[in-house]
């Protein structure tokens, strides 16, 4: 919805420039839906997708990357429409709508976590053993429980 609001503002900027109430409504809707889209997925998806051992580091890296991308995007578009040229403002809004839709598409490239526990997602079994390393973990568990090498 956020991308659709930006797309409408970009395509119909001439009309919306003279109709401030409608432009304000679209602008408010855009920020309302931004709170449910990119802002929430920045925190929800990394917390579910990364393995338990690396979760905090990867979550911080994801958040930092998102903030850096937002800063580059904001500064890149900041000076583009400053002279008040309608075509530049329209182009900036269309570019932002396109990048929003691109981010929406990339969100679905991640793995689906619905119905899976954090242990299943991270590759850990019920005993807390890492099943992604296979035999090496089984040997260390056998050695620690029996006192001899397996």
UniProtKB/TrEMBL annotation:
Protein name in the entry: Major facilitator superfamily (MFS) profile domain-containing protein
One Gene Ontology term of the molecular function aspect: carbohydrate:proton symporter activity
Signal peptide (residue range): none
High-level lineage: Eukaryota, Viridiplantae, Streptophyta, Embryophyta, Tracheophyta
Region (Disordered): 121-150
Keywords: Membrane, Transmembrane, Transmembrane helix
Alphabetical list of InterPro entries matching this protein: MFS_sugar_transport-like (IPR005828), MFS_Sugar_Transporters (IPR050360), MFS_trans_sf (IPR036259)
Major location category of this protein: membrane
Residue ranges crossing the lipid bilayer per the database entry: 21-40, 92-110
